[in-house]
Amino acid sequence: MRKLKTSIFGYPIYTVTTTYHYRKVGVPTVFEELLMSLAAEFPQLKQKSIGQIAKVLKLEPTFIRHTLSTMKDIGMINLDDTENLEELAIANLTLTDTGKQFYQSKKVPGRRRTAITEFYFNPVSQKYDKLNKASKIDISFEQSLFSIDETLLPTLSRNEVESQQWFDSDVALEDNGITHYIEQENFQSVPVTLSLDDNFHLQLDSS
Predict the structure, then answer these.
(1) What are the E-state strand segments in 2-101?
(2) Number of domain units in the chain
(3) Could you read off the pLDDT of 16-58 as tens digits, one per residue?
(4) Which end of the chain has fewer CB atoms < 10 Å from its terminal CB, N or C?
């Protein structure tokens, strides 16, 4: 095999800035545990108001309102009004599917957190890839020849979650908690060698 020439080919590779929205899952507070229990159990109390229950248990209404507001914000309960506890019947306090899941596991999600990571989407392999950037490219291909299938990105990004430094067993991604911003600002470089074999046939090698 006689090597004739090695050229550096370049094709567009996309920078995908990925934003993850997640929460750390922890043990519920006394107030969270109480409100989840009232929503999921105790049918005999459904006609009572949360304000009445708070008075019987001598609970501070401010803490109850704050807990209701937080649980609503993180998607655990269905509730329109979190302020008027005297008018808020327990029958109107219901858990969402997410709330039911956390109630069964005796866990609750904490405050919302954000992490941003950059990946490189290779339009040839249709996967995230490492960037091979050469100081010089001999032959480059136009971006229009290498489109990006954006429908693949959520799955690809989700598959990378466990490799992130912020991830641990207490992390829960939000529903639709992954967003992407796409740029084409780099070229993936591939060295291609042109050789002549013993039968004088041209061979291309990109390994």
Answers:
(1) 2-26, 77-78, 94-95
(2) 2
(3) 999 999 999 999 999 999 999 999 988 888 889 999 999 999 9
(4) C
Same structural domain, 62 and 138: no
Range of the domain at 84: 28-106
Distance, CA of 196 to chain centre: 50
Together in a domain, 84 and 131? no
Stated pTM of the model: 0.66
Question: Which residue, 17, 19, 21, is CA-closest to 182?
Answer: 17
Residue where a domain terminates, one of 106, 125, 155: 106
Distance between CA 93 and CA 46 in Å, rounded? 9
* pLDDT of residue 140 exceeding 60: yes
Q: Where are the beta strands (DSSP E) in 27-163?
A: 77-78, 94-95, 108-122, 127-129, 139-140
Task: Using alpha carbons only, give the angle 13, 16, 18 rounded to the nearest 5 degrees.
Answer: 165
- Claim to verify: residue 19 and residue 116 sit in the same structural domain: yes
